[in-house]
Every structure is written in C-alpha cells, then in structure tokens.
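WP5 quarterly update. Target: ABC transporter permease. Source organism: Aminobacter carboxidus. Length: 276 aa.
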Amino acid sequence: MKSDRSVTMTERVFDLGAKLIAVLVAIFLVTPILVIFPLSFTSDSLMIFPLPGVSMRWYVDFFTNPVWLTALRNSLMLAVVTMVVATVLGTLAALGLVRLSRGWRSVVSTLLLSPLIVPVIIIGVGTFFYFARLGLAGSFFGLVLAHTVLALPLVVIAVTATLEGFDPNLVRAAYASGASPFPAFWHVTRPLIMPGIATGATFAFITSFDEIVCVIFLGGPEFRTLPRQIWSGAKETVTPTIAVAAVLLVVASVVMTLVVEALRKRAQRLSKGAAT
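Structure tokens (predicted):
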C-alpha cells in the first residue's frame, strides 16, 4: 500500500511540475506578444512604458494612411489567392497520396512535406534565382507560387489526416449507383473531408498572411505586404502605428487558430458519428 501511495504521490508531483513548466513557457512566449496591445493605444509618439496616456490616434493613423492600407490590401489579396491555389492542389495531392502503396507514399509525402524542413530563407533565395530566369521575380504570380510552396504541405497534412478515417466503401457505393468520379467526389467525399479541407485552407491563409522572407526576395520594391511594411517601418521610423499593424496580425492569427480548433472538433464529432 505504501508503495502504491508513493507512486501516486510521485505521479501527482510530476504532473504538477509539468503543468507549471508548461504555464511558465507559455507566459515566456506570450508576454512579448501581449506587450504590443497596450503600446498600440499609447498617446505618445514613442513606444514606452508606462503609457503617458491612452488614445486611439494610431488606429486612426493606420486606417487613414494609404501606405498601411495598401499593405493590408496586398496581404489579404495574396493570402486569399494563395489559400485557394494551395487548397485545391493540396487536396488533390492528398487524394492521390492515400491511394499510393506504402513505399511510394513515403517517397511522395517526403517530397511534398520538404518545404516544412527546408529553412524559409533557402526557399526564398532559391525561388528568387529560379523565378528570375523565368521572369517571375517581382510579380504577384511569382509570390503566389512561392507562398503556395510554403502552404501546400499544411493542406496535405490536414486533408490526409481526414482521409485516414474516411470509408472508401462510400465512394464504391456511389460508383455502383452509377455516379462518375467527379460527382462521387463532390457529393460523397467532399462533404466528409470538408473539415480537413477548411483546416488546410486556414493554415494556408495564415502562412501567406504572416510571411515576409519570400516577399522581400520576390515582391519587388513597390509591392509591400503588412509584415514587410512593419519590417520597413521598424528600420526607418518606429511609431506606434507599427504596434497597431502587429496587433492586427496577431488578432488575425488567433482568430484563424480558433477556427482551426473549431473545425478539428467538428471533424472529431463527424468521425464519431460515422463510426457509430
């Protein structure tokens, strides 16, 4: 009995210690991000603590400044186009991947997921020299292709995870009923894997919206996204407007993360319902 009690006490202490470490790490990672929120409401032209006063002047400056609004519009446009392209290609790749044999699946999945392993700076330099020969450097289409390379593995992972619990007999039943491949996919497969598709699309949007390295290499001097404008502002004139832009990036990422979590829970409910 004493031995069992000592083991239980040890497990409780270990569990409490692990939770404490997790909380401390979370505080360490989140605190620098949270600092920008009060700084965006400062009434001074300098980002200092304690705040001399509270004001919305820098939010007004952001939403009335054509430079920042253009950067926000470019970021949204680039992220939406990248999301659409990466989601379509990633979904098709995942559908083909699950049909391969185990050996070929390992090879192909390694190639598809390699952008997650290669540093972004290497991808930026490589795409710049390659796209320069094709005349795509400095073009919007070149940026879409580069961001699609970064976002595609996330879509493949999300859709493949959903397909792992998919019952292929449902598609066979659709074929037996006379459905051709595309209607069978659209009316049978697509609704069941939609949570994975939506999750991959959300990750693709976040990846493009927050990316800066490829934008610096391929965007050209005139094309500025929100992260690039923040980078330029931090080098040239540091004002609390930069904090406002950073707040918008953080809020957008948090909202998208919450959407992904909601989709994940919905996918779990659907898989449980299909199992029963």
